[in-house]
Amino acid sequence: MVKLVVWQMFNLSGDKQMKKSLVALAVLGSFAGAASAANSVTLYGRVDVGYQKFSHEFDNDGFNQSGNGETRLGIKGEEDLGNGLAATFQLEGRFDGDTGSKTEKDDGSQLAFFDRESTVGLKGSFGHVRFGRSVAAMDKALDRYVVGERVATLWDPYASSTRHSNTMFYDFASGGFDGGFHVSTKGGAVGDTTEGKDGEKIGYGVFAGYTVAGFTVSAAYQADKAQFARPNLTQNISAIGEFAADKEWGVGMSYQYNPVKFSVTYAEAKSRQQNSSYKAKLKTWTTALSADVTANDNVYVKYMEKRFSDNYSASLQKEKGRYFGLGYSHALSKRTSVYADVGRYDVKQTVGRATYKNDGTAFDIALRHNF
């Protein structure tokens, strides 16, 4: 009926602008019809735009206005199927708030439209089963302890792939306990979108966490089955940011005694190279202390250390990276806040008898609105 009325009005009108408006109304009407078919559909996201500057060899972007994928848009919904069972879906992508364009990868290509989440599933008393693309086990276990924004999160507290495609995810929560696992088809575990990829192995992971009386502890094991080519470390090449994990495990804990919260994490990843005896290892430590100095103001201090080593007999390689950070955020409302971070990075590489050093500072200041 909506399409018929619009078509009749479209023929009667000779105004081009009116025609465009009517077409737009028809499109909106079709979306409204789709939304009403589900029990609940929620549009959500955040807009985050700020200034940031890196002044060291590994990420010398200069002074720029960068969204850096901090701006996000998502839609999720749930349909009651009866008997305690519900169907779910979630789509979430990111783009740069300063330009409105899709966020680019390090190689210059653009990320997929819904790169953060693209799942459909069923949930009930048994838990939540989803299929598609979402965060993996190591992120589920250790991301809950991350503090800071932008320059403070240049390095992750682990080395495994953050998100897996072509994957089944299972999550369960009861009381203070939460846990789950994921299993990927060949190729999905290492960030590819082509499943059943020759030469790749099935990836999987498992995580669990427990919270009681302000104390939280969690752990995860993840096997990405990724291959990692031996890096030739130099002053401009770093392994700690490009490490591809074959398998990794990690643990984390935090304790909150209002208004102060202390957290610490440790992760250890190993790599492999097909048909080779080459092996490499990456260890990551993080610790942070944050405090709510007022109802609207939070400050934090953070330290992170990453250590890379390999067994290449011709020239042993080692790399150590450290980050010291300080940050502040102020809530203007429940949805809007301003924040700033400042950090100090230093990296030391040892290749045989040669030594390379890089250090620098970084800072950011930004405005964020959640909706």
UniProtKB/TrEMBL annotation:
| Signal peptide location | 1-37
Which key words are in the record? Cell outer membrane, Ion transport, Membrane, Porin, Signal, Transmembrane, Transmembrane beta strand, Transport
Q: Does the keyword Signal apply?
A: yes
Q: Where in the cell is it found?
A: Cell outer membrane
Entry's Gene Ontology cellular component terms: cell outer membrane; pore complex
The topology of this chain with respect to the membrane is:
Multi-pass membrane protein
Predominant cellular place of this UniProt entry's protein: membrane
Record-annotated Porin domain positions: 24-348
A Pfam family in this protein?
Porin_4
Q: Which residues form a coiled coil?
A: none
GO biological process terms, alphabetically, are: monoatomic ion transport
Protein's name in the database: Porin
